[in-house]
């Protein structure tokens, strides 16, 4: 797409990545798959190394792992699930690190692409979160979990005609959809913004009449890169804590 | 027309929708995450959590020990203060007793000194009285001697000193008797 002197790449060039191997198969391996795998490997390495260290005062990787565990316990599980939430720590900490590393690659040179700016990763995690909180609700409360959710107590009976479909949609359908779309939209928007200002910098560098505007574009590019660090962490945290809140709602529906 | 429609459909197939998920990426994302979750659940998290729990337990024990030591120190301070109070009371008693003893000693010594002074004073008075009597006797003898000598010269005759002295003595005694009347 060409706007004035700027030539923006088509959107598929910004988000589509060709397969590196296993072309035309259901396991075609591209950059997104590589980032997902890298996120898994990095998290495994961090916790595997941290698990071998038993220093009284943790440092380095051990400190990172312990601070992360403490963070998920205190800032995600305690407010989101409460009593009985410790058993969900492995799932939530895996989710947080997997998303953080999948997000942060958007600002790392040579990657320059968050895996979560493609719908697959957010969708997979959102569906898993949905399966998880539905499973927790059904395991602990049986079908009363569903009936309690769509027929909230204290509502006048005629209003159930209105409330029940809304509760059903919002609790069982919208939740995974909103989880996935929120993460995907934020990361794709950030990625497109970085691409935009990168293209603008390149164009202004080559277009002498407007080269004076280059510092502004460069400043925006640097500022947005810093902002994307915050977004990467924040979106991972939001996704994880919302999952915890949904699990907590399924575990203690009376609250 | 049909060919154009087929070509358009083929073109639409090639056009990527950036919103829709791709099945291959779903497989890799799901596989990667499930692998991570399983490893985290059964292998990775336990050692880290165990170290944290052990540290927490050690901190709890150390805190309990510190609290116990602090309580012991407070007890020791209380015992020390009690001992200080007892010692202070004992010291006060000792000082009071010593002061009373010193007062008693002072009074005894003062009484003894006063008695000794009084005795010495009486002894000195007796000595003065005796010396005065001896001096008077001596003076009387000398005066009598002088008077006898003077009388011997006046009468141109030797007088017996002892007889004259007896006369003088009797006279003096008679004067004293007369004077006392």
Shape of chain A: globular
Name the overall outline of chain B. Answer: rod-shaped
Radius of gyration of chain A: 22 Å
Tell me the distance between the termini of chain B: 196 Å
- Main sheet makeup of chain B: none
Quantity of strands of chain B, as a count: 0
Number of helical segments with 4 or more residues of chain B:
3
Distance between the termini of chain A: 52 Å
- Mean of residue pLDDT of chain A? 90
Low-pLDDT runs of chain B: none
Oligomer: heterodimer
Number of DSSP E strands of chain A: 2
Percent in helix of chain B: over 70%
Question: What attributes does this structure have?
Answer:
heterodimer, A: 255 residues, mainly alpha, 70% helix, 2% strand, globular, B: 181 residues, 3 helices
Can you offer a commentary on this structure?
The complex is a heterodimer of chains A (255) and B (181). With 255 residues, chain A is mainly α. Chain A has eight helices and two strands. A two-stranded antiparallel ribbon of chain A has the order 1-2. In chain A, β1 (2-3) and β2 (6-7) form a beta hairpin. Chain A starts with a strand and ends with a helix. Helices cover 92% and strands 0% of the residues of chain B. In chain B, α2 crosses α3 (161-180). Chain B is rod-shaped. The model of chain B has no long low-confidence stretch (mean pLDDT 86). The interface between A and B is large, with 53 and 34 residues.
Quick description:
Chain A is mainly alpha-helical and 255 residues long. Chain A has 8 helices and 2 strands. Chain A is 70% helix and 2% strand.
Break the fold down into its secondary structure elements and pairings.
The complex is a heterodimer of chains A (255) and B (181).
Chain A: E1 2-3, E2 6-7, H1 11-15, H2 31-52, H3 60-80, H4 89-104, H5 120-141, H6 144-150, H7 160-206, H8 214-251
Antiparallel strand pairs in A: 1-2
Helix pairs in contact in A: 2-3, 2-4, 3-4, 3-8, 4-8, 5-7, 5-8, 7-8
Chain B: H1 2-14, H2 23-155, H3 161-180
């Amino acid at each position: 797409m060409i706007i004035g002197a700027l030539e923006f790449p088509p959107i598929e060039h910004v988000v589509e990545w060709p397969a590196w191997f296993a072309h035309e198969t259901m396991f075609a391996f591209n950059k997104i798959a590589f980032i997902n795998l890298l996120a898994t490997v990095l998290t495994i390495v961090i916790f595997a190394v941290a698990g071998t260290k038993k220093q009284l005062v943790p440092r380095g990787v051990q400190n990172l792992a312990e601070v992360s565990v403490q963070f998920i316990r205190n800032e995600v599980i305690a407010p989101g699930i409460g009593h009985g939430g410790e058993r969900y720590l492995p799932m939530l900490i895996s989710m947080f690190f997997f998303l953080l590393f999948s997000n942060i690659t958007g600002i790392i040179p040579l990657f320059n692409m968050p895996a979560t700016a493609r719908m697959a990763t957010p969708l997979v995690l959102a569906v898993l979160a949905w399966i998880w909180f539905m499973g927790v609700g059904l395991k602990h409360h049986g079908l009363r979990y569903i009936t309690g959710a769509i027929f909230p107590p204290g509502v006048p009976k005629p209003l159930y005609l209105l409330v029940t479909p809304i509760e059903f949609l919002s609790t069982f359908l919208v939740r995974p959809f909103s989880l996935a779309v929120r993460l995907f939209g934020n990361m794709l928007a950030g990625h497109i913004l970085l691409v935009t200002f990168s293209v603008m910098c390149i164009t202004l560098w080559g277009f002498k009449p407007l080269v004076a505007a280059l510092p502004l574009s460069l400043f925006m590019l640097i500022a947005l890169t810093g902002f994307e660090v915050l977004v990467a962490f924040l979106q991972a945290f939001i996704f994880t804590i919302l999952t915890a809140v949904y699990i907590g709602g399924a575990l203690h529906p009376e609250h | 027309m049909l060919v154009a429609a087929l070509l358009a459909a083929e073109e639409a197939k090639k056009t990527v929708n950036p919103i829709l998920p791709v099945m291959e990426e779903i497989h890799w994302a799901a596989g990667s995450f499930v692998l991570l979750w399983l490893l985290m659940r059964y292998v990775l998290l336990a050692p880290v959590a165990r170290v944290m729990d052990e540290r927490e337990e050690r901190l709890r024990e150390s805190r309990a020990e510190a609290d116990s030591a602090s309580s012991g120190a407070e007890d020791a301070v209380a015992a020390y203060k009690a001992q200080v109070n007892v010692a202070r009371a004992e010291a006060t008693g000792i000082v009071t007793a010593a002061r009373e003893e010193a007062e008693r000693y002072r009074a005894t010594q003062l009484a003894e000194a006063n008695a000794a002074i009084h005795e010495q004073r009486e002894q000195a008075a007796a000595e003065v009285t005796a010396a005065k009597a001896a001096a008077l006797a001596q003076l009387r003898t000398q005066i009598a001697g002088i008077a006898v000598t003077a009388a011997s010269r006046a009468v141109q005759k030797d007088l017996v000193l002892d007889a004259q002295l007896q006369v003088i003595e009797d006279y003096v005694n008679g004067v004293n008797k007369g004077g006392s009347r």
